[in-house]
Amino acid sequence: MSRSDDVVDGVKQMILDGRLEAGQRLPAEKELAATLGVSRGSLREGVHALGTLGILESRHGDGTYVTTLDPALLLAPVGFVAELQDDAAAFHSVRRLLETEAAGLAALHIDDDALARLRAVLDETARALVDLPLDHERLVDADLAFHEEVARASGNPVLAALVGGLAGRASRTRLWRGLSDEGAEDRAFVEHEAILAALAARDPDRARLRMATHLLGLEDSATGVWAR
Q1: Gap between the Cα atoms of 90 and 179, Å rounded
Q2: What are the DSSP calls for 108-120, one per residue?
Q3: Which pTM does this prediction carry?
Q4: What's the rounded mean pLDDT across residues 127-153?
Q5: Please, which contacts does 17-23 make with residues 24 or more away whose CB atoms are closer than 8 Å?
Q6: Is 119 within 8 Å of 196 (Cβ atoms)?
């Protein structure tokens, strides 16, 4: 391992040990380098790497801090990795597994405010579907909002972050623009309505079934899109 790797591992251990906490300012460079047994150059390299990972953030004129360590922040690179892959279908299959479980959990934990937000998203989708010409970006925005809201309602921030990473804007834009099956957009809207109904009924089994059916339908409609 390089000395900068020692910094990464050392800071990670300090966080795990409780010597550093979310939002806390790091010790002065000289002190931290001595604690980790590395040179200041290696320390800077390691700190830069930890910044890229979303673990540390540098504030101009105020030092370096541990971030919130929020799962959405730390798992953000998953989306970048997913967008670089040629085998989009494989990532969509993983997304389907995660979102199906997220829907089931959401049915158990969702509150009235979240249901109201989902209702508002579907109302916006309905308006977008009747406006011509069809605005795919508007549909993508609504689709993102719907699925992210369901994932957040699961009550599991790690699951929500993974869903957000694997089903980000780039993959959804590619999917929606590639749907060639006539009526696919309207059918997706009806399926979203069915998912919302299952969530409102607090029925986890039906919510899982509705979400899985919806995402499988998108896979079928997008046959050939994944290869482009």
Answers
A1: 18
A2: HH--HHHHHHHHH
A3: 0.77
A4: 91
A5: 20/66, 21/66, 22/66, 22/67, 22/68, 22/69, 23/65, 23/66, 23/67, 23/68
A6: yes
